[in-house]
Design goal:
2 copies of one chain form a homodimer.
Chain A (H helix, E strand, L loop, with lengths): L1 H17 L10 H13 L14 E4 L13 H16 L7 H7 L3 H6 L1 H13 L4 H14 L15 H12 L3 E9 H5 L2 H5 L6 E4 L3 E6 L2 E6 L11 H9 L6 E4 L5 H8 L6 E8 L6 E2 L10 H5 L6 E4 H4 L9
Parallel strand pairs in A: 1-2, 1-6, 2-3, 6-7, 7-9
Antiparallel strand pairs in A: 4-5, 7-8
Helix pairs in contact in A: 3-6
Pfam families (chains A, B): HAD
Protein name (chains A, B): Haloacid dehalogenase-like hydrolase
Keywords (chains A, B): Signal
Chain lengths: ~325, ~325
Protein backbone atom coordinates (compact mmCIF):
# COMPACT_ATOMS: atom_id res chain seq x y z
CA UNK A 1 0.00 0.00 0.00
CA UNK A 2 2.70 2.42 1.00
CA UNK A 3 4.82 1.41 -1.97
CA UNK A 4 1.89 1.83 -4.33
CA UNK A 5 1.25 5.28 -2.90
CA UNK A 6 4.91 6.27 -3.26
CA UNK A 7 4.94 5.09 -6.85
CA UNK A 8 1.82 7.06 -7.67
CA UNK A 9 3.20 10.12 -5.96
CA UNK A 10 6.50 9.91 -7.83
CA UNK A 11 4.87 9.48 -11.21
CA UNK A 12 2.57 12.36 -10.42
CA UNK A 13 5.52 14.58 -9.52
CA UNK A 14 7.35 13.53 -12.66
CA UNK A 15 4.36 14.39 -14.79
CA UNK A 16 4.11 17.80 -13.15
CA UNK A 17 7.80 18.50 -13.63
CA UNK A 18 7.58 17.59 -17.28
CA UNK A 19 4.39 19.49 -18.03
CA UNK A 20 4.52 22.65 -20.12
CA UNK A 21 3.40 25.51 -17.86
CA UNK A 22 2.64 27.70 -20.88
CA UNK A 23 0.88 25.47 -23.45
CA UNK A 24 -0.64 28.38 -25.38
CA UNK A 25 2.81 29.86 -25.98
CA UNK A 26 4.72 28.62 -29.03
CA UNK A 27 8.25 27.39 -28.40
CA UNK A 28 10.00 30.64 -29.24
CA UNK A 29 12.87 32.56 -27.70
CA UNK A 30 10.39 34.71 -25.82
CA UNK A 31 8.85 31.70 -24.09
CA UNK A 32 12.35 30.42 -23.28
CA UNK A 33 13.32 33.76 -21.77
CA UNK A 34 10.24 33.85 -19.52
CA UNK A 35 10.75 30.29 -18.26
CA UNK A 36 14.47 30.78 -17.84
CA UNK A 37 13.87 33.91 -15.75
CA UNK A 38 11.36 32.15 -13.50
CA UNK A 39 13.59 29.10 -13.07
CA UNK A 40 16.56 31.29 -12.14
CA UNK A 41 14.83 33.43 -9.50
CA UNK A 42 13.21 30.37 -7.89
CA UNK A 43 16.38 28.25 -7.74
CA UNK A 44 17.80 28.48 -4.21
CA UNK A 45 21.21 27.51 -5.59
CA UNK A 46 21.25 30.31 -8.16
CA UNK A 47 23.13 33.55 -7.53
CA UNK A 48 20.03 35.37 -8.76
CA UNK A 49 17.65 33.59 -6.36
CA UNK A 50 14.81 35.82 -5.09
CA UNK A 51 12.93 35.02 -1.87
CA UNK A 52 9.18 34.38 -2.33
CA UNK A 53 8.25 37.59 -0.48
CA UNK A 54 10.03 39.65 -3.14
CA UNK A 55 8.55 37.77 -6.11
CA UNK A 56 6.11 40.52 -7.03
CA UNK A 57 4.69 40.48 -10.56
CA UNK A 58 2.52 43.34 -11.86
CA UNK A 59 0.42 43.45 -15.01
CA UNK A 60 -1.56 46.04 -16.83
CA UNK A 61 -5.06 44.78 -17.71
CA UNK A 62 -6.49 46.40 -20.89
CA UNK A 63 -4.59 45.08 -23.90
CA UNK A 64 -2.28 43.03 -21.66
CA UNK A 65 -4.55 40.51 -19.93
CA UNK A 66 -7.72 41.03 -21.97
CA UNK A 67 -8.72 42.90 -25.13
CA UNK A 68 -9.16 46.65 -25.49
CA UNK A 69 -10.49 47.10 -29.04
CA UNK A 70 -12.42 48.76 -30.58
CA UNK A 71 -12.43 50.71 -27.25
CA UNK A 72 -11.77 49.88 -23.61
CA UNK A 73 -14.43 47.43 -22.44
CA UNK A 74 -15.15 49.58 -19.41
CA UNK A 75 -16.12 52.41 -21.76
CA UNK A 76 -18.64 50.12 -23.45
CA UNK A 77 -20.01 49.30 -20.02
CA UNK A 78 -20.17 53.02 -19.20
CA UNK A 79 -22.09 53.75 -22.42
CA UNK A 80 -24.54 50.91 -21.82
CA UNK A 81 -25.02 52.04 -18.24
CA UNK A 82 -25.54 55.65 -19.30
CA UNK A 83 -28.22 54.57 -21.81
CA UNK A 84 -29.93 52.64 -19.02
CA UNK A 85 -29.81 55.60 -16.62
CA UNK A 86 -31.05 57.97 -19.36
CA UNK A 87 -34.16 55.86 -19.90
CA UNK A 88 -35.26 56.90 -16.41
CA UNK A 89 -33.94 60.45 -16.65
CA UNK A 90 -32.98 61.78 -20.10
CA UNK A 91 -31.90 65.08 -18.56
CA UNK A 92 -28.61 63.50 -17.44
CA UNK A 93 -27.38 63.64 -21.06
CA UNK A 94 -26.05 67.17 -20.74
CA UNK A 95 -23.56 67.18 -23.64
CA UNK A 96 -23.14 65.91 -27.19
CA UNK A 97 -20.59 63.41 -25.92
CA UNK A 98 -23.02 61.96 -23.38
CA UNK A 99 -25.80 61.84 -25.98
CA UNK A 100 -23.54 60.03 -28.42
CA UNK A 101 -22.47 57.64 -25.65
CA UNK A 102 -26.03 56.79 -24.65
CA UNK A 103 -26.84 56.22 -28.33
CA UNK A 104 -24.02 53.69 -28.53
CA UNK A 105 -21.99 55.79 -30.97
CA UNK A 106 -18.52 54.36 -30.29
CA UNK A 107 -16.89 56.34 -33.05
CA UNK A 108 -18.07 59.71 -31.77
CA UNK A 109 -17.00 58.94 -28.20
CA UNK A 110 -13.69 57.51 -29.39
CA UNK A 111 -12.91 60.72 -31.30
CA UNK A 112 -13.28 62.71 -28.08
CA UNK A 113 -10.20 61.05 -26.61
CA UNK A 114 -9.44 60.77 -22.91
CA UNK A 115 -11.65 63.76 -22.05
CA UNK A 116 -14.72 62.10 -23.56
CA UNK A 117 -13.93 58.79 -21.89
CA UNK A 118 -13.65 60.44 -18.49
CA UNK A 119 -16.89 62.35 -19.05
CA UNK A 120 -18.80 59.17 -19.86
CA UNK A 121 -17.26 57.27 -16.96
CA UNK A 122 -18.05 60.13 -14.59
CA UNK A 123 -21.67 60.26 -15.63
CA UNK A 124 -22.22 56.54 -15.21
CA UNK A 125 -20.11 55.33 -12.29
CA UNK A 126 -20.95 57.41 -9.22
CA UNK A 127 -23.73 58.07 -6.77
CA UNK A 128 -24.21 54.48 -5.65
CA UNK A 129 -22.64 52.31 -3.02
CA UNK A 130 -19.64 50.27 -4.13
CA UNK A 131 -21.70 47.12 -3.61
CA UNK A 132 -24.59 48.31 -5.79
CA UNK A 133 -22.17 49.47 -8.50
CA UNK A 134 -20.45 46.11 -8.59
CA UNK A 135 -23.78 44.31 -8.91
CA UNK A 136 -24.55 46.48 -11.96
CA UNK A 137 -21.19 45.53 -13.47
CA UNK A 138 -21.79 41.83 -12.77
CA UNK A 139 -25.22 41.98 -14.40
CA UNK A 140 -23.76 43.73 -17.44
CA UNK A 141 -20.92 41.21 -17.80
CA UNK A 142 -23.45 38.38 -17.70
CA UNK A 143 -25.39 39.67 -20.71
CA UNK A 144 -23.12 41.98 -22.73
CA UNK A 145 -21.35 40.64 -25.80
CA UNK A 146 -18.39 42.06 -27.70
CA UNK A 147 -19.40 43.67 -31.03
CA UNK A 148 -16.76 41.80 -33.08
CA UNK A 149 -16.28 38.43 -31.37
CA UNK A 150 -19.73 37.95 -29.85
CA UNK A 151 -17.97 36.74 -26.70
CA UNK A 152 -18.74 37.77 -23.13
CA UNK A 153 -16.07 40.33 -22.24
CA UNK A 154 -14.69 38.29 -19.37
CA UNK A 155 -14.03 35.45 -21.83
CA UNK A 156 -11.82 37.75 -23.92
CA UNK A 157 -8.96 37.34 -21.51
CA UNK A 158 -5.78 36.21 -23.21
CA UNK A 159 -5.29 32.52 -22.51
CA UNK A 160 -1.46 32.73 -22.74
CA UNK A 161 -1.43 35.48 -20.10
CA UNK A 162 -3.82 33.60 -17.83
CA UNK A 163 -1.36 30.69 -18.06
CA UNK A 164 1.55 33.02 -17.29
CA UNK A 165 -0.22 34.36 -14.18
CA UNK A 166 -0.92 30.84 -12.95
CA UNK A 167 2.64 29.73 -13.70
CA UNK A 168 4.08 32.67 -11.75
CA UNK A 169 1.83 31.94 -8.76
CA UNK A 170 2.75 28.25 -8.89
CA UNK A 171 6.37 29.40 -8.62
CA UNK A 172 5.71 31.51 -5.53
CA UNK A 173 5.04 34.88 -7.17
CA UNK A 174 2.33 37.20 -5.95
CA UNK A 175 0.48 38.51 -9.02
CA UNK A 176 -1.07 41.97 -9.16
CA UNK A 177 -3.07 43.97 -11.68
CA UNK A 178 -1.98 47.61 -12.04
CA UNK A 179 -4.33 49.15 -14.57
CA UNK A 180 -5.71 52.47 -15.77
CA UNK A 181 -9.10 50.73 -15.59
CA UNK A 182 -11.40 51.23 -12.66
CA UNK A 183 -10.55 49.44 -9.44
CA UNK A 184 -14.14 48.57 -8.58
CA UNK A 185 -14.95 47.54 -12.14
CA UNK A 186 -12.04 45.10 -12.35
CA UNK A 187 -12.63 43.51 -8.97
CA UNK A 188 -15.95 42.13 -10.22
CA UNK A 189 -14.35 39.64 -12.62
CA UNK A 190 -10.60 39.53 -11.90
CA UNK A 191 -10.67 36.78 -9.29
CA UNK A 192 -12.60 34.38 -11.52
CA UNK A 193 -10.89 35.42 -14.73
CA UNK A 194 -7.28 35.64 -13.52
CA UNK A 195 -7.16 34.17 -10.03
CA UNK A 196 -6.22 37.62 -8.69
CA UNK A 197 -8.03 38.56 -5.45
CA UNK A 198 -9.39 42.07 -4.73
CA UNK A 199 -6.48 43.10 -2.51
CA UNK A 200 -4.06 42.55 -5.41
CA UNK A 201 -5.87 44.82 -7.86
CA UNK A 202 -4.68 48.41 -8.30
CA UNK A 203 -6.54 50.74 -10.62
CA UNK A 204 -7.99 54.19 -11.13
CA UNK A 205 -10.60 55.26 -8.64
CA UNK A 206 -13.02 57.93 -7.56
CA UNK A 207 -13.03 59.11 -4.00
CA UNK A 208 -15.43 57.31 -1.72
CA UNK A 209 -17.29 58.42 1.34
CA UNK A 210 -18.35 56.54 4.45
CA UNK A 211 -22.04 57.12 5.05
CA UNK A 212 -24.76 55.83 7.34
CA UNK A 213 -27.67 54.92 5.05
CA UNK A 214 -30.84 53.71 6.81
CA UNK A 215 -28.67 52.76 9.75
CA UNK A 216 -26.23 50.76 7.64
CA UNK A 217 -22.60 51.88 7.28
CA UNK A 218 -21.99 52.10 3.54
CA UNK A 219 -19.10 53.05 1.24
CA UNK A 220 -20.44 55.33 -1.50
CA UNK A 221 -18.68 56.21 -4.75
CA UNK A 222 -18.17 59.98 -5.15
CA UNK A 223 -18.31 61.79 -8.50
CA UNK A 224 -15.10 62.53 -10.36
CA UNK A 225 -11.89 60.57 -10.62
CA UNK A 226 -9.45 60.98 -7.75
CA UNK A 227 -6.54 58.98 -9.12
CA UNK A 228 -5.65 57.84 -12.62
CA UNK A 229 -3.47 54.77 -12.45
CA UNK A 230 -1.54 55.35 -15.65
CA UNK A 231 1.97 56.36 -16.75
CA UNK A 232 4.02 57.66 -13.76
CA UNK A 233 0.97 56.99 -11.58
CA UNK A 234 1.62 53.26 -11.90
CA UNK A 235 5.00 53.09 -10.13
CA UNK A 236 3.76 55.63 -7.59
CA UNK A 237 0.67 53.52 -6.84
CA UNK A 238 2.70 50.30 -6.67
CA UNK A 239 5.16 51.86 -4.22
CA UNK A 240 2.32 53.23 -2.10
CA UNK A 241 0.12 50.14 -2.11
CA UNK A 242 2.55 47.23 -2.33
CA UNK A 243 5.67 48.88 -0.93
CA UNK A 244 7.95 46.57 -2.88
CA UNK A 245 9.51 46.96 -6.30
CA UNK A 246 8.22 44.27 -8.66
CA UNK A 247 10.72 41.95 -10.33
CA UNK A 248 8.33 41.14 -13.19
CA UNK A 249 6.18 43.69 -15.00
CA UNK A 250 3.97 43.26 -18.07
CA UNK A 251 2.17 45.83 -20.17
CA UNK A 252 1.27 46.74 -23.74
CA UNK A 253 1.19 50.50 -24.15
CA UNK A 254 3.06 53.72 -23.38
CA UNK A 255 0.90 54.00 -20.27
CA UNK A 256 2.87 51.03 -18.91
CA UNK A 257 6.34 52.33 -19.76
CA UNK A 258 7.12 53.93 -16.40
CA UNK A 259 5.96 50.82 -14.53
CA UNK A 260 8.21 48.54 -16.57
CA UNK A 261 11.07 51.04 -16.45
CA UNK A 262 10.93 51.25 -12.65
CA UNK A 263 10.50 47.51 -12.14
CA UNK A 264 13.35 46.52 -14.42
CA UNK A 265 15.81 49.21 -13.27
CA UNK A 266 16.12 47.65 -9.82
CA UNK A 267 19.01 45.49 -8.63
CA UNK A 268 19.11 41.79 -9.35
CA UNK A 269 17.15 39.81 -11.92
CA UNK A 270 14.21 41.62 -13.50
CA UNK A 271 11.94 40.99 -16.44
CA UNK A 272 9.80 43.41 -18.42
CA UNK A 273 7.28 42.13 -20.93
CA UNK A 274 5.39 44.02 -23.63
CA UNK A 275 2.43 42.45 -25.42
CA UNK A 276 2.69 43.71 -29.00
CA UNK A 277 -0.61 43.45 -30.87
CA UNK A 278 0.57 42.04 -34.20
CA UNK A 279 -2.24 39.66 -35.03
CA UNK A 280 -4.82 41.36 -37.23
CA UNK A 281 -6.26 37.99 -38.25
CA UNK A 282 -7.02 36.53 -34.83
CA UNK A 283 -7.20 39.77 -32.81
CA UNK A 284 -6.27 43.35 -33.78
CA UNK A 285 -3.01 44.72 -35.15
CA UNK A 286 -2.12 48.12 -33.69
CA UNK A 287 0.67 50.01 -32.00
CA UNK A 288 2.14 53.45 -32.83
CA UNK A 289 -0.94 55.09 -34.30
CA UNK A 290 -3.73 53.57 -32.24
CA UNK A 291 -5.86 55.94 -30.13
CA UNK A 292 -6.35 53.01 -27.71
CA UNK A 293 -3.22 51.30 -26.38
CA UNK A 294 -0.71 53.39 -28.28
CA UNK A 295 2.76 51.83 -28.15
CA UNK A 296 5.86 53.81 -29.08
CA UNK A 297 8.27 53.91 -26.13
CA UNK A 298 8.12 50.18 -25.48
CA UNK A 299 8.98 49.38 -29.09
CA UNK A 300 11.69 52.04 -29.30
CA UNK A 301 13.42 51.43 -26.00
CA UNK A 302 12.12 48.11 -24.62
CA UNK A 303 14.53 45.83 -26.51
CA UNK A 304 17.60 47.78 -25.29
CA UNK A 305 16.22 47.58 -21.75
CA UNK A 306 16.10 43.80 -22.10
CA UNK A 307 12.33 43.53 -22.21
CA UNK A 308 10.55 40.63 -23.89
CA UNK A 309 8.47 42.02 -26.76
CA UNK A 310 5.73 39.45 -27.25
CA UNK A 311 4.71 39.08 -30.89
CA UNK A 312 1.13 37.84 -30.51
CA UNK A 313 0.99 36.40 -34.02
CA UNK A 314 4.20 34.41 -33.59
CA UNK A 315 4.37 33.71 -29.85
CA UNK A 316 0.79 32.68 -29.09
CA UNK A 317 -1.00 29.64 -30.52
CA UNK A 318 -4.26 30.74 -28.93
CA UNK A 319 -5.67 34.16 -28.12
CA UNK A 320 -8.88 34.28 -26.06
CA UNK A 321 -9.71 32.08 -23.11
CA UNK A 322 -13.28 31.90 -24.42
CA UNK A 323 -12.47 30.77 -27.99
CA UNK A 324 -10.09 28.22 -29.47
CA UNK B 1 11.44 4.21 12.88
CA UNK B 2 8.19 5.11 11.22
CA UNK B 3 6.30 4.41 14.42
CA UNK B 4 8.72 6.52 16.45
CA UNK B 5 8.26 9.36 13.99
CA UNK B 6 4.46 9.10 14.15
CA UNK B 7 4.57 9.12 17.94
CA UNK B 8 6.78 12.19 17.99
CA UNK B 9 4.56 13.91 15.47
CA UNK B 10 1.41 13.15 17.44
CA UNK B 11 2.85 14.35 20.71
CA UNK B 12 4.09 17.46 18.99
CA UNK B 13 0.63 18.15 17.56
CA UNK B 14 -0.93 17.50 20.96
CA UNK B 15 1.43 19.98 22.55
CA UNK B 16 0.57 22.57 19.93
CA UNK B 17 -3.14 22.03 20.36
CA UNK B 18 -2.82 22.41 24.10
CA UNK B 19 -0.57 25.46 24.03
CA UNK B 20 -1.95 28.84 25.02
CA UNK B 21 -1.82 31.06 21.92
CA UNK B 22 -2.08 34.20 24.06
CA UNK B 23 0.20 33.69 27.08
CA UNK B 24 0.41 37.40 27.91
CA UNK B 25 -3.37 37.61 28.25
CA UNK B 26 -4.87 36.75 31.64
CA UNK B 27 -7.65 34.17 31.64
CA UNK B 28 -10.52 36.64 31.53
CA UNK B 29 -13.81 36.77 29.65
CA UNK B 30 -12.19 38.99 27.05
CA UNK B 31 -9.54 36.39 26.26
CA UNK B 32 -12.27 33.73 26.09
CA UNK B 33 -14.30 35.81 23.68
CA UNK B 34 -11.34 36.34 21.34
CA UNK B 35 -10.41 32.66 21.28
CA UNK B 36 -14.02 31.56 20.95
CA UNK B 37 -14.50 33.88 17.96
CA UNK B 38 -11.39 32.57 16.22
CA UNK B 39 -12.30 28.94 16.90
CA UNK B 40 -15.80 29.48 15.51
CA UNK B 41 -14.85 31.15 12.25
CA UNK B 42 -12.11 28.58 11.56
CA UNK B 43 -14.24 25.51 12.27
CA UNK B 44 -15.44 24.08 8.93
CA UNK B 45 -18.33 22.40 10.77
CA UNK B 46 -19.57 25.64 12.34
CA UNK B 47 -22.47 27.59 10.83
CA UNK B 48 -20.32 30.71 11.23
CA UNK B 49 -17.32 29.28 9.38
CA UNK B 50 -15.44 31.87 7.31
CA UNK B 51 -13.19 30.89 4.38
CA UNK B 52 -9.50 31.85 4.78
CA UNK B 53 -9.71 34.44 1.97
CA UNK B 54 -12.28 36.41 3.98
CA UNK B 55 -10.40 36.22 7.28
CA UNK B 56 -9.22 39.82 7.15
CA UNK B 57 -8.10 41.43 10.42
CA UNK B 58 -7.23 45.13 10.65
CA UNK B 59 -5.51 46.97 13.47
CA UNK B 60 -4.75 50.55 14.25
CA UNK B 61 -1.11 51.03 15.27
CA UNK B 62 -0.57 53.96 17.70
CA UNK B 63 -2.03 53.02 21.08
CA UNK B 64 -3.27 49.68 19.74
CA UNK B 65 -0.14 47.78 18.73
CA UNK B 66 2.48 50.05 20.31
CA UNK B 67 2.54 53.04 22.67
CA UNK B 68 1.52 56.58 21.82
CA UNK B 69 2.37 58.57 24.96
CA UNK B 70 3.43 61.21 25.79
CA UNK B 71 2.95 61.90 22.04
CA UNK B 72 2.86 59.80 18.85
CA UNK B 73 6.30 58.28 18.37
CA UNK B 74 6.36 59.49 14.79
CA UNK B 75 6.06 63.05 16.07
CA UNK B 76 9.14 62.51 18.23
CA UNK B 77 10.92 61.24 15.14
CA UNK B 78 9.73 64.30 13.21
CA UNK B 79 11.04 66.64 15.91
CA UNK B 80 14.42 64.88 16.08
CA UNK B 81 14.65 64.95 12.30
CA UNK B 82 13.72 68.62 12.17
CA UNK B 83 16.45 69.45 14.72
CA UNK B 84 18.94 67.54 12.56
CA UNK B 85 17.87 69.35 9.37
CA UNK B 86 17.95 72.73 11.15
CA UNK B 87 21.59 72.20 12.14
CA UNK B 88 22.44 72.45 8.43
CA UNK B 89 19.88 75.13 7.65
CA UNK B 90 18.29 77.00 10.58
CA UNK B 91 16.16 79.04 8.15
CA UNK B 92 13.77 76.09 7.78
CA UNK B 93 12.37 76.86 11.25
CA UNK B 94 9.85 79.36 9.95
CA UNK B 95 7.35 79.35 12.84
CA UNK B 96 7.21 79.16 16.62
CA UNK B 97 5.86 75.63 16.34
CA UNK B 98 8.80 74.48 14.24
CA UNK B 99 11.28 76.23 16.57
CA UNK B 100 9.68 74.53 19.57
CA UNK B 101 9.75 71.19 17.76
CA UNK B 102 13.43 71.46 16.86
CA UNK B 103 14.18 72.41 20.46
CA UNK B 104 12.48 69.21 21.60
CA UNK B 105 9.68 71.04 23.40
CA UNK B 106 7.04 68.29 23.40
CA UNK B 107 4.63 70.27 25.53
CA UNK B 108 4.54 73.27 23.19
CA UNK B 109 4.06 71.10 20.11
CA UNK B 110 1.44 68.98 21.87
CA UNK B 111 -0.57 72.08 22.75
CA UNK B 112 -0.81 72.98 19.06
CA UNK B 113 -2.94 69.91 18.36
CA UNK B 114 -3.29 68.26 14.99
CA UNK B 115 -2.31 71.42 13.11
CA UNK B 116 1.04 71.59 14.87
CA UNK B 117 1.66 67.88 14.36
CA UNK B 118 1.01 68.15 10.63
CA UNK B 119 3.25 71.21 10.37
CA UNK B 120 6.15 69.40 12.01
CA UNK B 121 5.60 66.25 9.94
CA UNK B 122 5.41 68.30 6.75
CA UNK B 123 8.64 70.10 7.47
CA UNK B 124 10.57 66.91 8.21
CA UNK B 125 9.25 64.16 5.94
CA UNK B 126 9.45 65.32 2.33
CA UNK B 127 11.92 66.18 -0.39
CA UNK B 128 13.76 62.87 -0.37
CA UNK B 129 13.29 59.57 -2.08
CA UNK B 130 11.20 57.04 -0.20
CA UNK B 131 14.29 54.87 0.15
CA UNK B 132 16.40 57.66 1.69
CA UNK B 133 13.58 58.62 4.03
CA UNK B 134 13.21 55.07 5.26
CA UNK B 135 16.94 54.85 5.92
CA UNK B 136 16.67 57.96 8.09
CA UNK B 137 13.81 56.35 10.03
CA UNK B 138 15.79 53.12 10.47
CA UNK B 139 18.82 55.04 11.77
CA UNK B 140 16.61 56.96 14.18
CA UNK B 141 14.91 53.79 15.50
CA UNK B 142 18.31 52.24 16.13
CA UNK B 143 19.43 55.02 18.45
CA UNK B 144 16.36 56.83 19.80
CA UNK B 145 15.01 55.94 23.25
CA UNK B 146 11.62 56.67 24.78
CA UNK B 147 11.76 59.49 27.38
CA UNK B 148 9.91 57.50 30.07
CA UNK B 149 10.80 53.85 29.54
CA UNK B 150 14.27 54.24 28.03
CA UNK B 151 13.29 51.54 25.51
CA UNK B 152 13.83 51.65 21.75
CA UNK B 153 10.47 52.62 20.27
CA UNK B 154 10.12 49.43 18.29
CA UNK B 155 10.41 47.46 21.54
CA UNK B 156 7.40 49.32 22.92
CA UNK B 157 5.04 47.14 20.95
CA UNK B 158 2.40 45.48 23.12
CA UNK B 159 3.37 41.86 23.64
CA UNK B 160 -0.29 40.70 24.01
CA UNK B 161 -1.16 42.28 20.66
CA UNK B 162 1.90 40.81 18.94
CA UNK B 163 0.68 37.43 20.21
CA UNK B 164 -2.83 38.14 18.94
CA UNK B 165 -1.50 39.02 15.47
CA UNK B 166 0.51 35.81 15.35
CA UNK B 167 -2.41 33.75 16.62
CA UNK B 168 -4.71 35.18 13.95
CA UNK B 169 -2.16 34.44 11.21
CA UNK B 170 -1.68 30.92 12.53
CA UNK B 171 -5.43 30.50 12.13
CA UNK B 172 -5.42 31.64 8.52
CA UNK B 173 -6.13 35.33 8.97
CA UNK B 174 -4.41 38.01 6.93
CA UNK B 175 -3.37 40.78 9.32
CA UNK B 176 -3.23 44.44 8.28
CA UNK B 177 -2.27 47.70 9.93
CA UNK B 178 -4.65 50.60 9.20
CA UNK B 179 -3.20 53.61 10.98
CA UNK B 180 -3.22 57.37 10.99
CA UNK B 181 0.56 57.06 11.17
CA UNK B 182 2.71 57.46 8.09
CA UNK B 183 2.76 54.57 5.64
CA UNK B 184 6.47 54.88 4.87
CA UNK B 185 7.37 55.39 8.52
CA UNK B 186 5.57 52.22 9.66
CA UNK B 187 6.92 50.02 6.91
CA UNK B 188 10.43 50.43 8.33
CA UNK B 189 9.72 48.40 11.47
CA UNK B 190 6.33 46.67 11.05
CA UNK B 191 7.57 43.50 9.42
CA UNK B 192 10.14 42.82 12.16
CA UNK B 193 7.95 44.08 14.99
CA UNK B 194 4.61 42.55 14.00
CA UNK B 195 5.25 40.13 11.14
CA UNK B 196 3.19 42.39 8.86
CA UNK B 197 4.71 42.87 5.38
CA UNK B 198 4.72 46.22 3.52
CA UNK B 199 1.77 45.35 1.28
CA UNK B 200 -0.43 44.88 4.36
CA UNK B 201 0.24 48.30 5.86
CA UNK B 202 -2.21 51.14 5.24
CA UNK B 203 -1.50 54.59 6.60
CA UNK B 204 -1.47 58.29 5.93
CA UNK B 205 0.70 59.44 3.07
CA UNK B 206 2.01 62.35 1.09
CA UNK B 207 1.80 62.28 -2.67
CA UNK B 208 4.84 60.87 -4.42
CA UNK B 209 6.34 61.58 -7.79
CA UNK B 210 8.20 59.35 -10.20
CA UNK B 211 11.46 61.05 -11.19
CA UNK B 212 14.59 60.21 -13.11
CA UNK B 213 17.49 61.21 -10.83
CA UNK B 214 20.98 60.77 -12.30
CA UNK B 215 19.52 58.23 -14.69
CA UNK B 216 17.85 56.24 -11.91
CA UNK B 217 14.05 55.97 -11.70
CA UNK B 218 13.17 57.12 -8.19
CA UNK B 219 10.00 57.57 -6.12
CA UNK B 220 10.22 60.93 -4.32
CA UNK B 221 8.07 62.07 -1.40
CA UNK B 222 6.17 65.29 -2.16
CA UNK B 223 5.42 67.98 0.44
CA UNK B 224 2.06 68.00 2.17
CA UNK B 225 -0.21 65.18 3.23
CA UNK B 226 -2.45 63.75 0.53
CA UNK B 227 -4.47 61.34 2.62
CA UNK B 228 -5.08 61.10 6.36
CA UNK B 229 -5.95 57.55 7.29
CA UNK B 230 -8.17 58.33 10.26
CA UNK B 231 -11.86 58.26 11.20
CA UNK B 232 -14.07 57.71 8.10
CA UNK B 233 -10.85 57.57 6.04
CA UNK B 234 -10.09 54.16 7.54
CA UNK B 235 -13.04 52.20 6.13
CA UNK B 236 -12.68 54.11 2.85
CA UNK B 237 -9.00 53.18 2.62
CA UNK B 238 -9.67 49.55 3.56
CA UNK B 239 -12.36 49.23 0.91
CA UNK B 240 -10.11 50.84 -1.70
CA UNK B 241 -6.94 48.95 -0.88
CA UNK B 242 -8.11 45.58 0.39
CA UNK B 243 -11.53 45.43 -1.26
CA UNK B 244 -12.92 43.16 1.45
CA UNK B 245 -14.71 43.98 4.66
CA UNK B 246 -12.66 42.84 7.66
CA UNK B 247 -14.22 40.41 10.12
CA UNK B 248 -11.89 41.46 12.94
CA UNK B 249 -10.94 45.07 13.73
CA UNK B 250 -8.93 46.45 16.63
CA UNK B 251 -8.34 50.03 17.72
CA UNK B 252 -8.06 52.24 20.77
CA UNK B 253 -9.42 55.70 20.00
CA UNK B 254 -12.30 57.59 18.40
CA UNK B 255 -10.22 57.67 15.22
CA UNK B 256 -10.85 53.93 14.96
CA UNK B 257 -14.59 54.04 15.59
CA UNK B 258 -15.72 54.11 11.94
CA UNK B 259 -13.36 51.24 11.07
CA UNK B 260 -14.74 49.04 13.84
CA UNK B 261 -18.30 50.12 13.13
CA UNK B 262 -18.02 49.18 9.45
CA UNK B 263 -16.20 45.92 10.11
CA UNK B 264 -18.62 44.71 12.76
CA UNK B 265 -21.84 45.79 10.98
CA UNK B 266 -21.30 43.24 8.20
CA UNK B 267 -23.13 39.92 7.93
CA UNK B 268 -21.91 36.85 9.76
CA UNK B 269 -19.50 36.64 12.69
CA UNK B 270 -17.54 39.80 13.46
CA UNK B 271 -15.37 41.00 16.30
CA UNK B 272 -14.40 44.52 17.28
CA UNK B 273 -11.75 45.13 19.92
CA UNK B 274 -10.86 48.33 21.77
CA UNK B 275 -7.65 48.60 23.77
CA UNK B 276 -8.58 50.71 26.79
CA UNK B 277 -5.52 52.28 28.45
CA UNK B 278 -6.32 51.63 32.11
CA UNK B 279 -2.87 50.86 33.47
CA UNK B 280 -1.26 53.98 34.90
CA UNK B 281 1.26 51.89 36.81
CA UNK B 282 2.72 49.83 33.96
CA UNK B 283 1.80 52.11 31.03
CA UNK B 284 -0.45 55.20 30.92
CA UNK B 285 -4.06 55.62 31.99
CA UNK B 286 -6.04 57.81 29.59
CA UNK B 287 -9.23 57.90 27.57
CA UNK B 288 -11.92 60.62 27.37
CA UNK B 289 -9.76 63.66 28.07
CA UNK B 290 -6.48 62.74 26.43
CA UNK B 291 -5.27 64.94 23.56
CA UNK B 292 -3.59 61.80 22.14
CA UNK B 293 -5.77 58.73 21.61
CA UNK B 294 -8.99 60.23 22.92
CA UNK B 295 -11.61 57.53 23.49
CA UNK B 296 -15.28 58.39 23.95
CA UNK B 297 -17.38 56.67 21.27
CA UNK B 298 -15.81 53.27 21.79
CA UNK B 299 -16.53 53.37 25.52
CA UNK B 300 -20.05 54.74 25.07
CA UNK B 301 -21.22 52.54 22.22
CA UNK B 302 -18.70 49.70 21.87
CA UNK B 303 -20.20 47.39 24.52
CA UNK B 304 -23.68 47.58 22.94
CA UNK B 305 -22.11 46.83 19.57
CA UNK B 306 -20.62 43.67 21.05
CA UNK B 307 -17.04 44.87 21.02
CA UNK B 308 -14.41 43.50 23.39
CA UNK B 309 -13.18 46.39 25.55
CA UNK B 310 -9.72 45.31 26.65
CA UNK B 311 -8.85 46.47 30.14
CA UNK B 312 -5.06 46.63 29.94
CA UNK B 313 -4.62 46.51 33.73
CA UNK B 314 -6.82 43.41 34.13
CA UNK B 315 -6.48 41.60 30.82
CA UNK B 316 -2.75 41.79 30.20
CA UNK B 317 -0.04 40.23 32.37
CA UNK B 318 2.67 41.90 30.32
CA UNK B 319 2.77 45.18 28.41
CA UNK B 320 5.81 45.84 26.25
CA UNK B 321 7.59 43.30 24.08
CA UNK B 322 10.87 44.88 25.14
CA UNK B 323 10.34 44.69 28.93
CA UNK B 324 8.97 42.03 31.27
Amino acid sequence: MTRLFSTLLLSCLAATAGADPLPSWNDTDNKDRIISFVETVTDPQAADYVTPAERIAVFDNDGTLWGEQPVYFQLIFAMDRLAELAQDDPSILTSDTLKAAAAGNLEAVGKGGTGAILEVVNASHSGTSVGAFQQVVADWLAKARHPDTGLPYDRMTYQPMVELLRYLRDEGFKTYIVSGGGLHFMRVFAEDAYGIPPEQILGSYADSSYEMIDGTPTIVKSPGIAFIDDKAGKPVNIERTIGRRPIFAGGNSDGDFAMLEWATAGDGPRLGLIVHHTDGAREYAYDRDSPIGRLNDGLDRGPDLGWVIVDMAKDWNRIYTGAR
